[in-house]
Amino acid sequence: MSALKLWLENNPAFFIMTTAVLGLVVGSFLNVVIHRLPLMLERTWKRQCREHMDGEPVENDPPGPIFNLVRPRSQCPHCGHTIAAHQNIPVLSFVFLKGRCAACGQRIAWRYPFVELLTAILSVTVVWHFGATSASAAALLLTWALIALAVIDFETQLLPDAVTLPLIWIGLLVNLYPNSLFTPLRSAVIGAVAGYLFLWLVFHGFRLLTGKEGMGYGDFKLFAAFGAWLGWQDLPLIIVLASLVGAVTGIAMIVVLGRDRQLPIPFGPFLCAAAWIALLWGNDITRFYLQFARITA
Asked: Is this model's pTM higher than 0.70 or not?
């Protein structure tokens, strides 16, 4: 393993190119997750509601076509055309097809190449920052999960438990003593508890004051996952960054785009962006702030 690490460090161009290609491939899979996971949850909820209302056991449902993250093969959402392998190459297929389905000619959403390119760029940034280390591998996993969660929440206002809850446990595992990758285990455990309780208190305080729900329970679990990965010390930085960017974005959407101020804006994407920044540069940002505060005091 050390020999492989040394070889990768001595061949940075190959390391970066391999990571970029891996990011494109993973980004293509993340598009599947982003599209299908909310649909899978919706089907499950409908089946559970029908069972509750009608008393009809789920196992008595007539068998339907398999629908999960693997099957069926990718299809055009407009005409149902099964996408061939050569039509499913990340980014390149979108360019060659000129952004349209090969069968029906309907436009392919820009989200697909955007997620693929974003995943490649962020993956390269992560390995450039952490190098050929176990921390880099763990940070890649977190980065990919954050991309999926951010886009799902932006499109559907859902933060699926199938992603957020495993992130909490994985965050605690990667910080097990004595090989803590990002923060000591004690800090990770406190961070997971504090992350959930903080947004839980904000949620109920806001509801008592306004009679409205300002966020969902998925945000609590997501913030708990950040605490498990990065420790309680980074939680203030994440919430401040997310709140600032969210407020600026919300105001811009209302003023510039004329968005109805009553329409909710998902908070998850801003939390994900802030946590990714804290993952790479949290210590530097905190150190800079403390030095600035000391100078201006």
From this structure: yes
